[in-house]
Amino acid sequence: MTKLHVLGFPRVGAKRELKFAQERYWRNEFSEQDLLKLAKFLREKNWQHQAENQADFVTVGDFTFYDHILDLQVATGAIPARFGFDSQNLTLNQYFQLARGNQQQFAIEMTKWFDTNYHYLVPEFTQDTKFKANPSHYVNQVREAKALGLTPKPVLVGPLTFLWLGKEKGAAFDRFSLLDRLLPVYQEILTALAAEGVEWIQIDEPALALDLPQQWLDAFAPVYAQLSQVNSKILLATYFGSVAAHADWLKTLSVDGLHLDLVRAPEQLAAFEDYQKVLSAGVIDGRNIWRADLNAQLAYLAPLKAKFGERLWIASSCSLLHCPFDLAVETQLKEQNPDLYSWLAFTLQKVEELAVLKQALNQGKEAVENILAENQAALQARANSQVIHKAEVAERLANLPADADKRKSPFNVRIAKQNAWLNLPLLPTTTIGSFPQTLQIRHARANFRKGEISFADYENAMKKEIELVVRKQEELDLDVLVHGEPERNDMVEYFGELLDGFAFTKFGWVQSYGSRCVKPPIIFGDVSRPQPMTVRWSQYAQSLTKRVMKGMLTGPVTILQWSFVRNDIPRATVCKQIGVALSDEVLDLEKAGIKVIQIDEPAIREGLPLKRADWDEYLQWTSEAFRLSYMGVADDTQIHTHMCYSEFNDILPAIAGLDADVITIETSRSDMDLLDAFVKFNYPNDIGPGVYDIHSPRVPTAAEIEHLLRKALNVIPKERLWVNPDCGLKTRGWSETVEQLKVMVDVTKKLRAELV
Questions:
Q1: Which of 219, 404, 546, 717 is the most buried (most CB within 10 A)?
Q2: Is 594 a member of any domain?
Q3: pLDDT mean over 595-614
Q4: Do 520 and 564 touch, CB atoms closer than 8 A?
Q5: Which of 5, 259, 483, 695 is an active site residue?
Q6: CA angle 476, 638, 666 (to 5 degrees)
């Protein structure tokens, strides 16, 4: 009989219950006991959903209070020594301090999980790192599941991916050298799980989809020869790309089964059709929300069933962490757009799709004949829909003028014209865009959406908040101001709501990091901008001050990457459609007198294909889409962009090719290490490296900011250096925001006095 499992489940709950409980706990409004109780309830609910849909195993160990890689740092004793915490006796409060920082230590660095919008906490390894096993996180969840009469399959990230995802700190060394120290700790964790009677353990090695050095690839055989000695079976899980290049040795690896992502890389199956162990076929998309073609999947799986028999498992392509929880609660979408609703599948529906496939494979298609017919009808309706394709959008994209994505003049000409009217001091200060989203702002926005207040009342509330933000910035003596974005619920959703071709859910939240959730728009059709989106807010803010006001937009690549994107045309085409639509907004801002415009692109690096061979094509169309978003602007209009929580070393030529006049980047958690790449590359335009971490409520000391700015001044000419926080201030409170910015401005003024 074909078995069914999933690689992981969303953690935050159907209605973000965990998020709200965490944040109440951090505000001392919720006890630790209550938080633990809620977490147990959410875990059990996830397992019951899996069991009710014929899952042969329920996945445990995937639930986390913040991040699964942080959990693994605790489990292996690899938490940063600088905190002074004992990983064997770590309290929940200390766990959160690792993720969020405290008064003495900055938080563990975050970066993107492969090419997703999920952030993991980067392990900090030193040559003296001492590992020590603490398997309680996994063991306790196994016991909980067994107490419910369920069959648990614990999951943890494998040792090679864990080391690969970390960073060396302190004296120079190669973190690969830590493998021999780490391996016995993994073996101890697996032994503890085997002692609980666990039959299968899922070990994720997604790094196999990357271009790993040969030394790392050669290590897989001895590593898994040692780990396979435990008294449980090991399912090695790969995802996010093809591992066909490694098929020969993967087929001989000392594991009991292999999971392949057959959504991202269906072509790799050919290399494994003669695999002699359990093959887990990842056929349901764990990263997008479109309904699966069940008939096509059955046609794909039937030959595998014939070959593998009971050795065939079916699964999600990767963890369902990246999908919303339940489509059934989207009653508003169902009423307003029933066709689109019928084309979608969220986490619970994806598990149901797996159940249908399992039943068809084990009992024959006739057992699910009605479900298959309904599925096919919905897919056919989507293919023939008249609301998806718009001739005018395709025609505009096809008929862009030659060099539409090129500025009129080179940077040295443009910056001279910009400086002439900007008249800014050395080390100009600014922020990344958003200011605290208070409860009052959110209530006003929610009440307006519910129809409980008029448009005039809502607009007055937003204007009042914008004036507050402007006055605060003036008091702080910032140089280039922003309006604070009070009207924006999310940096992508806001624009999607105002662009054609997008649709929205009410509860379609996915975890970005910790308690931070995002609700990605759905791009279902051709994209265009029917009317201005930000102009009147920026105009109003400019009317309140004589200082320079910066317009704020989210860039085309980020809108694409942080949305659920249609899968019926190339992503490159969708991205260029968005870029062209945004260019209308940029030109309208320019006409309105807003001549400093920031187009945020934090997602360019995250969307980079995992294989280097695919990079050039991706960087070509993403760079073009970004440049299209400001096509036609005058030389004296200054274009900014912002990028955060990514490694840029390998793609700096492409970032320079964006030709933004100013780029701001996150650098504080890495102690300006990220800046080194820009310096070695000799990045040609202005740079604003972040000088403090906005994801922590901690107020940086003047010495810390001065240290970072002096490091920046050592490598960036003072005429090209901007000063700003790491990212937007939306998640912070007003008190800490003012204190943080005051320190930043005071230190900047001190250094200016030295440099004049």
A1: 219
A2: yes
A3: 92
A4: yes
A5: 695
A6: 60
- SS3 assignment for 547-588: CEEEEEEECHHHHHHCCEECCCCCHHHHHHHHHHHHHHHHHH
One domain for residues 219 and 268: no
Within a domain: 40: no
Binding positions for L-methionine are 432-434, 485, 600
| Rounded-to-integer distance, Cα 411 and Cα 428, Å | 18
1 alpha-carbon distance from chain centroid:
37
Say yes or no: 314 and 247 in one domain: yes
Write the CA distances from 6 to 18, 53, 190, 316, integer angstroms: 21, 11, 20, 5
Average of per-residue pLDDT values in the chain: 95
Q: How many domains does the chain have?
A: 3
Residue 184 and residue 255 in one domain:
no
CA distance 20 to 7: 25
pLDDT digits (tens, 9 = 90+) for 138-175: 999 999 999 999 999 999 999 999 999 999 999 999 99
Listed range (228-232, 487-491, 629-633) with the worst mean pLDDT: 487-491
Residue 695 among the catalytic residues: yes
Q: Check whether residue 305 and residue 356 sit in a common domain.
A: yes
> Looking at the structure, do residues 199 and 248 belong to the same domain, yes or no?
no
User: Do 185 and 250 sit in the same domain of this protein?
Assistant: no
Residue 449 C-alpha from the chain's centroid: 27
Structure tokens at 459: 């607009």
Residue ranges of the annotated binding site for L-homocysteine are: 432-434, 485, 600
If pLDDT is split at 50, 70 and 90, which confidence band does 679 have?
Answer: confident
Binding site residues for 5-methyltetrahydropteroyltri-L-glutamate, as ranges? 16-19, 112, 117, 516-517, 562, 606
Query: Considering just the CA atoms, what is the radius of gyration of the chain in Å?
Result: 26
Q: What is the pLDDT of residue 680?
A: 81
The rounded Cα 324 to chain-centroid distance in angstroms is 14
CATH number at residue 130: 3.20.20.210
Q: What angle do CA 382, 388, 389 make, to 5 degrees?
A: 125
Average pLDDT estimate for 685-712? 91
Q: Under a CB-based contact definition with an 8 Å cutoff, are residues 119 and 100 in contact?
A: no
Instruction: Output the pLDDT for position 646.
Output: 63
Same structural domain for residues 454 and 592?
A: yes
Are 243 and 200 part of one and the same domain? no
**C-alpha distances in Å from residue 203, one per residue of 10, 228, 532:** 18, 11, 49
| Domain final position from 210, 232, 254 | 232
CB-side exposure of 76: number of CA atoms within 13 Å? 30
Q: Count CB atoms within 10 A of the CB of residue 5.
A: 24
Q: How confident is the model at residue 675 (pLDDT cuts 50, 70, 90)?
A: confident
Residues within the annotated binding site? 16-19, 112, 117, 432-434, 485, 516-517, 562, 600, 606, 642, 644, 666, 727
Q: What is the mean pLDDT of residues 718-735?
A: 93
Domain stop point among 660, 688, 707 = 660
Q: Would you say the pTM of this structure is higher than 0.85?
A: yes
Where are any strands of DSSP class E within 592-736?
596-600, 638-643, 662-665, 686-689
Which of 128-142, 437-451, 594-608, 648-662 has the largest mean confidence? Answer: 128-142
Chain mean position to CA 737: 24
Distance, CA of 401 to CA of 609 (rounded, Å): 29
What digits encode the pLDDT tens for the residues 93-112? 999 999 999 999 999 999 88
pLDDT at 677: 79
Nearest in space to 519 (alpha carbons), one of 309, 289, 278 = 289
| Domain assignment of residue 495, given as a range | 435-660
Confidence tier at 696 by pLDDT (50, 70, 90): confident
> Does residue 589 fall inside a structural domain?
yes
The answer to whether 755 and 719 have CB atoms below 8 angstroms apart is: no
Three-state DSSP at 166 gives coil
Answer yes or no: is 39 within a domain.
Answer: no
